[in-house]
Design a protein that fits this description.
131 residues, mainly alpha, two-stranded antiparallel sheet, 5% strand
Length: 131
């Protein structure tokens, strides 16, 4: 039984690594759950949820492709927040002005995002199997 669980884990880890750069994590969690539903005992399955699967992918993996994909998604989210904070309305004049600190954060975040996107772990065919 232990060997079967190791093989299942390796298969799931490979699936996640192969799909993480082009598939939303909620879809991956659903696919993993569907496989677990077919392969695990009911008692083990009851301890598993989509949220647990997502948390495991986000927190416990050491796979470079999965980690860099998370970094890219986090940076993209931060860039969006910083971009929205760049333009503010002056209370005195009601004119739109640019917040230079927010603009600098945005530009630095975009630069980091560009660097992360060039990372070897995100290149097609470079998926590694560590997990």
């Amino acid at each position: 039984m232990h060997r079967e669980h190791q093989e299942l884990s390796a298969t799931i880890n490979a699936y996640v690594a192969d799909h993480i750069t082009r598939t939303q994590i909620k879809k991956i969690a659903q696919d993993v759950y569907d496989v677990l539903e077919q392969r695990l005992d009911r008692d083990l399955l009851e301890q598993t949820s989509h949220a647990n699967i997502i948390a495991h992918i986000n927190s416990h993996t050491t796979n470079p492709t999965i980690l860099m994909t998370k970094v890219v998604r986090d940076l993209a989210e931060l860039a969006g927040i910083a971009r929205e904070a760049c333009c503010v309305t002056c209370e005195e004049t009601s004119h739109k002005i640019i917040d230079s600190k927010a603009a600098n954060v945005y530009l630095k975040t975009v630069a980091e995002l560009q660097t992360a996107l060039r990372h070897e772990a995100l290149r097609p065919g470079k998926t590694t199997r560590e997990s």
